[in-house]
Amino acid sequence: MSASTPSYLIVGAGVFGASTAYHLIKKYPDRQITIVDQDAYDADSRVAASWDWNKVVRADYDDIVYCQLALEAQDVFKSDPLWKPFFHETGIFWICRSDYAQEVIENYRKLGRQADLQAVSIEEAKKMFGGLFEDANYDGVKEVLVNKTSGWAQAGDALRAVTKWSLEQGVKYVTAKVGGLTFDESGRCTGVETEDGGKLSASHTILSTGAYTAKLLEQAAHKSGNNELRAGTRIVAGGITTGMTTLTEESYKRFANMPVGVQGYTAAYGPFIGSLPPTKDRELKWWGEKIFKNTHEVLPGRFVSAPPSEPDYNQWNVPGPLKQDIDHANDVFYGKNGAEWKMEKHRVCWDAFTTSSDFIISPHAAAKGLYVATCGSFHGYKFFPVLGKYVIQMLEDELTPEHKEKWAWDRERPAPSLNPDWPRFEMADLLDSWPRAKL
Ligand SMILES: Cc1cc2nc3c(=O)[nH]c(=O)nc-3n(C[C@H](O)[C@H](O)[C@H](O)COP(=O)(O)OP(=O)(O)OC[C@H]3O[C@@H](n4cnc5c(N)ncnc54)[C@H](O)[C@@H]3O)c2cc1C
């Protein structure tokens, strides 16, 4: 391989990083491709948002770009032998308080896609799927979107299998925490330095570091003196609580083939809440409605939102007020039917958000050789099979003008208040109210 052959260092082995490695090794089997992540790809517990029991895989988007992209990804999930075992086509039951259902149906029509999807009245919806959602909250609801072709993926299992496949093809995996970036005299990024003192270099360094990205860029700016490296308001780390109950054998029979449930709200109220069908271990999962920042001083005088600094982001130590968020989620989906369920497992999952919920797949404007591919903004998992294809297009300056603009590092960004999923709380404020609430 000549010195001018491109080489790739991908920081972060979530869906953005793993998909990039997967597509790179397929396209360039002889090039040097390395992933570095603080957690082993097959560790029992990881901090990645992409590492999870399950994630919703749907193309039910009012934004036609993501609708199309999700359909492309779903086609892979449904047909490719590597991906297929992890996808479950259970359908989705989306309770809509806006025109969302009609917008999704219209997008499918515009894209010429046939699918078993319809908008149904509340009365009709309550009777579907054996009446599982008969006692859900329908306040302010217009209609319910039912798309039988949507579903969910065994998220962590798929992530591990696809990463393993890429390693077998020649991708190298280094388990280490990255503490900074390295630059040559011209300011070009040459790679990373790890907290254990190691150095890794490549012609292309791609940050797919999820919720940690803004903090890492602060560290790099501090060390290099190049303040333009900072993410500023472009990227904000947000946390969301998830919780699970283990269904009894009896209730499992009723819920085993349930669709994904979504309670949709408008931006004035807040984010959508979800309930995922039980895993093979009979565990039914929710995510809550509180999305929060964790703004703290990451370097002297520098305050950004980042996950807690413990090695596991303290993700399993979930305080009471956040657990209550899952009780609320249970109530708005199942009402009296779920009232007796015990919540056994809780986790706070961290992701990187942009105000428009668009990804950033872009060269970093402040250093040649440095690229950003992350910001799933609470919806990135489902695109796992195709994300890397677009990252390569970005690296080779072949993105369509529409994608290039949408995913750019520098672009106009809407006000956060327009985004229902924007992290609108501070974690500390949610926890502060805890002792008072107990009085
Ligand atoms: C509760 C919750 C539910 C969600 N549900 C869905 C869903 O149903 N469907 C859907 O499509 N999307 C969903 N999402 C969104 C989706 O999970 C994310 O958008 C996506 O997984 C982000 O992928 P990523 O690769 O950018 O980041 P991550 O998956 O977080 O991966 C980042 C990786 O970078 C590594 N890393 C970070 N910093 C460093 C460092 N300094 N050194 C070394 N390694 C580092 C981490 O260890 C991690 O492995 C959900 C998100 C959350 C939080």
Automatic annotation (TrEMBL):
The keyword Oxidoreductase applies. InterPro entries: FAD-dep_OxRdtase, FAD/NAD-bd_sf, MTOX. Its cofactor is FAD. Residues 8-393 form the FAD dependent oxidoreductase domain. Keywords: FAD, Flavoprotein, Oxidoreductase. GO terms for molecular function: flavin adenine dinucleotide binding; saccharopine oxidase activity; sarcosine oxidase activity. It comes from the Eukaryota. The keyword Lipid biosynthesis does not apply. Pfam families: DAO. Coiled coil: none annotated. Belongs to the MSOX/MTOX family. This is FAD dependent oxidoreductase. It comes from Dothidotthia symphoricarpi CBS 119687.
